[in-house]
Give the backbone structure.
Amino acid sequence: MKIRNNEELKLFEETLDRCDASVLLVTQQGEQYDLTDPAQRYLGIAELLSKSGYEEPELFTSCAKDEMAFFDYFNTIEKKSA
């Protein structure tokens, strides 16, 4: 996953704010960031902004409601880029 512009960043943070449980960002090197923790959120977002291709971190949610929020996020991003 990668954030490509300010609009995607704003929408991503709004989606995180709606989450009820932990949202983990895991890098290819095994580093983990809980994006619901304010300090870790900034570090995780920095990873999303700087990585590309096979280095892109993966996102994991802890509950179905949060997973659906991110499905909505990805659908919105896809529609805007089409």
Observations:
- The longest strand covers residues 23-26.
- Residues 64-81 form the longest helix (18 residues).
